[in-house]
Amino acid sequence: MTRLLISITLVLGMLLAGLPAVVSAADLILEPMPDTLQKAAEGAASQDDRFFSTAVSMIKSLSNGTVPLGSQQMKVNSAYSLMKGMNISPERFDEAKATLAFLYYSVKAGEAYENYHATKKSVASVTTGIEFYDLAQIYYQTSSAWWELIAASYPKVTLYTLPASSEPFPEDDIGVGTVLEGLKFPILMEHRIPDPSKPYQNDEINTTISRWIEDNIDSIPVNQTDRNDQSKGYYFMMGDDVAKAKSTYISLSSRNVPAEFYDTANYIDAFLYLISQAREYYNNYLTERTNIASATDGRVPYDKSKNYYDQAQIALNMFRDKVSDVKGNTTIPEFPRFDEVPLGPQLDSEGTLHDYWGGTYW
C-alpha cells in the first residue's frame, strides 16, 4: 500500500504542471469525483447564481485553516452534495466543475487525514496509520491543483494547509457558517433568498416540518416497554428521520418563501441542521463508548452532541408558534444520560480485555 501511494505521489508531482493530466492520473487510483454536474442547454435557465454563491461561502470558510475536519468537513460535504446536480450555463461550466472538484477533493483529504489520526491512536491498529497520511497528501495535491484554476476568483482567500504528520489533531472548528440570532452555533447556509417572481413554497415547508415533529416527537411511546426500555431521548435520537435530518434541511433550504416567512424558514432549517449535528456526534459517542478498539469513554463527542441538541431546542422555540400544526409548547425529549449506553470492553496497552468494572475477560 505504501509503495503504491509513493508511486502515485511521484506521478502527481511530475504532472502538477498540467491540471488535466494530474486529475486523470489521480482518478485512475483515487476515488474520482462523480460526474453529475449538468450543463444547461443553450438559452435554458441555469443555477449559476445559487451554485457560485454557495461556493463563495464554503471557499471563504476554508481560508487560512486546515483541511476540513469534523463539523467543517460535514458542511463542505453538504454544500458539495447540494451543488453537484445543478444545471450550469455553458459559459461557466468549466469553472463550476473545477470549483466542485476542489470541494470534493478537499473533503477526501480531510477524511484521509482523520483516518490517519484514528488509526494512529487505536490500540487495535497494526499500523501507524501513515498510509492514510500519504493518501491525504495525494488528495491535498489534487485539490491544490484544482484550486489553481479558480484561485483568481478568490483573491483574498488563502488555501488551507495539511498539517504535518507529527502535529496533533486540530480542534474541531464549529465557528464556520451563519449564526442566527439567539443561537450559539452556525448553520451551513441561510435559507434561499425570497424570489417574488417564483411560486412560494412555504406551505410545503410547513407540512414537512409539522409531519416531522408529529412522527418523531409527538409519537414517541409513553410506556418505556414500548421503547424497548430506552429513554425517550435515546429513542428519538436513534430514529431514521433524525439520521436523515441533514438531507431534509438541505432540501427545505432551497424552497422559495415570502419575505415575511424568511426568518421562520431559517429557524426550521437550523433545527434540522443542529439536530443532525447532534446525531453525528452521538454516533461518535456510541462508537467510542462501545468499540473494543476505542481508548476513551465517549465523553468528548457526548458533550458536543448535547450542546448541538440544546441549540436545536432553542431553534424549535423560535418557530413552533409560527407553524399552524405544531404545538406551541413542543419540546424535544430530555437528552439521553451519559451512562445510558454501557461502556464496552476495553483493551489495555498489553492487549488484555477488561470490562467496565476492571475485571479481566481473558
Short précis:
Helices cover 52% and strands 2% of the residues.
Instruction: Tell the overall outline.
Output: flat
The H-and-E topology, N to C, reads as HHEHHEHHHHHHHHEE
First-residue to last-residue Cα separation: 34 Å
- Described by its quaternary structure, the protein is single chain
Helical fraction: 40-55%
Tally of helical runs:
12
Structural category: mainly alpha
Poorly predicted runs are: 1-29, 353-362
Number of strands: 4
**How much β-strand is present in the residues?**
under 5%
Biggest sheet: strand arrangement? 1-2
- Based on CA atoms alone, the radius of gyration comes out at 23 Å
Arithmetic mean pLDDT: 83
Largest sheet data: 2 strands, parallel
Structure description:
- By secondary structure, the chain is mainly alpha-helical.
- 52% of the residues lie in helices and 2% in strands.
- The protein has twelve helices and four strands.
- It has helices at residues 2-15, 19-29, 48-62, 70-83, 93-121, 130-150, 202-218, 232-237, 240-243, 245-253, 262-290, 299-319; strands at residues 38-39, 87-88, 346-347, 353-354.
- The strands form two sheets. The protein has a two-stranded parallel ribbon. Strands 3-4 form a two-stranded antiparallel ribbon.
- Mean pLDDT is 83; it is low at 1-29 and 353-362.
